[in-house]
Amino acid sequence: MRPLKRLAKGSPADMARCMEAIRNLDAYLDEELRDHAKAERIAEHLEVCEDCGLEARTVSSLKVSLRRMAPEVDPGTLERLRRFAEGLENKEV
Amino acid sequence: MPYELHERWMNEQLMSIKRQDSRAEAIDRYVTPELSVLYRVALSLTRSHADAEDLVQDTLLRAYRSIDGFNGEYPRAWLLTIMRNANINRNRRQRPSLMVDPEAEMRKLASTADGSDDPEQIVVDSRFDGTVANAFKALPERFGQVVELVDIDGLSYQEAAAVLSIPVGTVMSRLHRGRARMKGQLTSEGYFRGGRR
User: Chain B: nearest CA to A38, how far in angstroms?
Assistant: First the structure.
């Protein structure tokens, strides 16, 4: 991980916001941040900070592209699995 | 049959029916909604549709057997842990070569146009997707596994940790490093502005 001090710019308060956003960006974008107040601060910061906003959009576009690689699950397969699950009670298991 | 014995037999039959009913309800409540995710993760683990279906069935059987002891919390993580163990057993039992299989069969990438995330963020350039796919395939396995489970299969950090049997913190650091490598690749190909990695 690159040193955060080199990434943040502006006043100490701005730098602190940048550092918080970059440190927590993955968890924020993955909706894994449990601290809602922090999530809100980061959301506000990403709106106003050009660099952090760009970083967030970059990771988001990567995530969205990767998500499109998810294999489509054949409805017939799902139906077979659903029937298998429903039939478990009649099996000797 | 003496009355006491008959009564005991009747009670046992009733208990058995109740247990079956509650198991069926639990399967319906906790397992059926996860079938799609289970299949997708099974496909990531096995790289074969037929093997993935077998692995999900194996997972369902094991889940059914142990559902009486399941407390109802985090059903997906519970099921994925069962799947991980089932997959380890399958590999040991049936196809030991898969345990040492390198990256030769890595990541058969089927495309799907799932626009359900955030339409504003979707990059529709197929060349971009192709470059992302190449950057993903180039990842070392330990990073690629986590990126695949979280970004492609849509698992939470906790769920990915359960599948891979590693701490959540390791999932987070591998995910970050995997994404950083991919961003680096995309930046070098002119998609992103250089700077933060």
Answer: 18
Q: Within an 8 Å CB–CB cutoff, is residue B29 touching chain A?
A: no
Distance separating alpha carbons of residues B47 and B38, to the nearest angstrom: 13
Suggest the residue from A34, A57, A59, A64 to mutate for an interface test with chain B (most B CBs closer than 10 A).
A64
**Residue B11 token pair:** 């009670």
pLDDT digits (tens, 9 = 90+) for A46-72: 999 999 999 999 999 999 999 999 888
Give me the residue label for tokens 């146009």: B113
Are residues B98 and B91 in contact, defined by beta-carbon separation less than 8 angstroms? yes
Phi, psi (rounded to 5 degrees) for B104: -60, -40
Residue B179 carries which side chain, given as an amino acid letter?
R
Could you give the CA distance from residue B144 to residue B195 in angstroms, rounded to a whole number?
Answer: 23
Looking at residue A21, its amino acid is: A
Encoding tokens for residue B42?
A: 């099974």
Q: Report how far apart, in Å, the C-alpha atoms of B126 and of each of A59, B110, B123, B183 are.
A: 17, 13, 8, 17
User: Which pLDDT tens digit goes with each residue over B12-64?
Assistant: 766 666 566 678 888 888 999 999 999 999 999 998 999 999 999 999 999 99
Distance CA B123, CA A77 (A): 30
